[in-house]
């Protein structure tokens, strides 16, 4: 199983191991569905009790739904299940926005104000209803996206001249309840968890280590000097990029290309340009070495069963070359490590997940 090995200075121990008392009356846990080990969805009731399965995304800041207004040329819409835009409870805010993602998917949305209920919390929330979409034709299981990033980067907020469009902020949580946490299940038959207002200690094995955010408007931490360790081999896991995004909207770990190449070579994987993956012997799923990252003097170790996946006829690693200007640790990492997104204290907490 994954492990954490602290190598902390005396001055860093108190900060690294801090925990906070939580008012349990403000804490709510809702289940998440593991969709093909590619992404995780939660159910929300919207408008006149339309039930939608929304993909959690800490890497973006806007909430939108596939809607009956939508057209596409690649089959991204329409789908059998869409938000019905004629819902009499929603309010047209007469604004729109375009959004583009790193994987080249994109959407254009009209903005509406809706009643939004998730995890026992009911709020009014401005959201996007898609009018055009592309690149979502292979993910019919998600009816939209729940942006868990920061309002500063919200395109909806910008279109509404700075109004709050952030679902988590709209809950009005205060003090040490200004956090949400995720437990990502390993298998599709098991449920993950989104905990709002705190964290679920039953899903944690050992201590929680906290890392201050390196950005005022993104779930990033400083990884200057981060190293990798694979058995007896070690080296720098970052070269020019100094921040890492903890992103529920990404499946893989994305590193600078030279680092990804080096790690995969040590693991015994080779890049296949046709498959666009680092291909590896399927036997290594169960007997490959642990892959460890040393982040701010704490070592996070990931077993091969987590970082190697199998397609229909070959196996590949989930360690990829980043195409952006940031290192990204996605669901692969969060399956191994329970993650606390602590907005009130501007930090991220990590602990071995009790799978």
TrEMBL record:
Residues 1-16 form the signal peptide. The active site is at residues 57, 247. Residues 40-351 form the Peptidase A1 domain. It holds the Pfam family Asp. Keywords: Disulfide bond, Signal. GO terms for molecular function: aspartic-type endopeptidase activity. InterPro entries: Aspartic_peptidase_A1, Pepsin-like_dom, PEPTIDASE_A1, Peptidase_aspartic_dom_sf. GO terms for biological process: proteolysis. Gene3D superfamilies: Acid Proteases. The keyword Phosphoprotein does not apply. SUPFAM superfamilies: Acid proteases. Disulfide bonds join 70-77, 282-315. Belongs to the peptidase A1 family. This is Peptidase A1 domain-containing protein. It comes from Boothiomyces macroporosus. The lineage of its organism: Eukaryota, Fungi, Fungi incertae sedis, Chytridiomycota, Chytridiomycota incertae sedis.
